[in-house]
Amino acid sequence: MTQQQRADLVARRLAERYPAPPIPLEHRDAYTLLVAVLLSAQCTDKRVNEVTPALFARAGDAAAMALVPVAEIQAIVRPCGLAPQKAKAIRGLSEILVTQHGGAVPCDWDALEALPGVGHKTASVVMAQAFGQPAFPVDTHIHRLAQRWGLSDGRSVVQTERDLKALFPREQWNALHLRIIYYGREHCTARGCDGTVCPLCRELFPRRKHAVAARR
Known about the structure:
Distance between the termini: 26 Å
CATH superfamily of the largest domain: Hypothetical protein, domain 2
Mean pLDDT: 96
Strand content: under 5%
Helix content: 55-70%
CATH architecture of the largest domain: Orthogonal Bundle
Structural class: mainly alpha
Number of helices: 12
Number of strands: 0
Low-confidence stretches: none
Number of domains: 2
Shape: elongated
CATH class of the largest domain: Mainly Alpha
Order of helices and strands: HHHHHHHHHHHH
CATH topology of the largest domain: Endonuclease III, domain 1
C-alpha cells in the first residue's frame, strides 16, 4: 500500500466512524474559541471546558476581558496550568482586539498569529473552526498518528502539517483533523496502541509485528 493509498484509507475509515465530528472545546463565538484554544495548551479539553464557563461569565467578549485584572483572570484559569502566562496573554490579546480590530477576532492569519499567546496551531484552529477556512492544526495526537500511519516521518510538527496537507484534499482538512484527534483519543492512544493494536493500524499494516517508535 502506497502512502497515498494509506491516506485515502484513513480518510474513508475516519469519515465512516466520525461523520460529523463536534468541536471539542465549548464556545459560542470566535473570541471564546480563541481563548479556549489558548487555554488548551498543555491541558486537556475536558479541563478547559470546566474552567471557561466561569471565565466567560466574568467577561464574555474582548471589551469586557480587557478590563479584568490579570490576577483575576489567573485565579480563574489556574486549573489549566501555565496560568500566569495564559492570563497575561488573554488580557493582552483582548486589549489588542479592542484597540486594533474593533473587539472582533480577525479572520486573518497574520493578525491572529501576532496576538499574544497565539501561535500557528492556535490560529489554525480558529481559522478552521470559527471561520471555516481550510487549515490542518497538528496537535500531539495528529503528530503521533501521522508517523504511526506512515503519513509523515515525525521530524517536526511543521513537517507533519506540510505532509498531511499534501496527502489530503483541502476540503477534508477541517473535519479530518478533528477525526484524527478523536480516533487518537479513543482508539489509537499513546499507551493503548503501539502501531499494531487498533483496527486502523491493523488494516493499514496487516503484517507489522513491532511497535512504532515515536520520534522526539
